[in-house]
Specification:
By secondary structure, the chain is of the alpha+beta class. The longest helix has 15 residues. It is globular and about 50 Å long.
């Protein structure tokens, strides 16, 4: 028996919560929670986010949102950086990927140490690209993966329901 698991399309993204599911489409301004009985296909139990969905409907609520305040601190007032960061974030949590155009999101420090012994760090990129994405998509974080080490067990924690593989401090 083959199960039909709910998947995003090029134009839609679906997020599953305890109290139902939400579909995001290009024209969506305020998402509406829907009952699971209206969903076509199955959902991995591990993909159901462990909280109820409540839409934020006004700017005052958005300004009080921890995520909005955090992204403001990470990207600063630079609108281009904000759009770039949010584009990367949305690409990661969106389930649809074009097999002919596979991308990787790479975040590096703005200022690198020139002696080759590290970076300044502490900019929030790891929190933004691992912890924040994990709040909306099943994420497996791999730490200190060395591409020169041919360890056949390196990705053994990646499961069938994993949506994002985050390699933190690679190499």
């Amino acid at each position: 028996m083959r199960l039909s698991v709910q998947k995003d399309t090029r134009e839609t993204a679906t997020f599953d919560f305890q109290n139902g599911w939400v579909r995001i489409e290009p024209e969506t301004t305020i998402p509406v929670i829907r009952p699971y009985s209206e969903l076509k296909g199955y959902v991995w139990k591990s993909q159901i986010l462990p909280h109820d969905f409540t839409p934020i409907t006004d700017q005052k609520q958005i300004n009080l949102c921890d995520f909005a305040r955090f992204t403001d601190k990470v990207f600063g007032p630079d609108q281009e950086r904000i759009l770039s960061g949010m584009s990367a974030f949305c690409y990661l949590i969106h389930d649809f990927k074009d097999d002919a155009l596979v991308k990787a999101v790479v975040a590096i420090d703005e200022k690198l140490v020139h002696n080759g012994k590290g970076s300044h760090g502490r900019t929030g990129k790891g929190i933004f690209l691992t912890k924040a994405t994990a709040r909306l998509a099943k994420t497996t974080v791999m730490e200190d993966i060395n591409p020169n080490n041919h360890n056949r067990f390196a990705f053994e924690r990646v499961k069938e329901d994993t949506k994002i593989i985050a390699i933190d401090e690679a190499g």
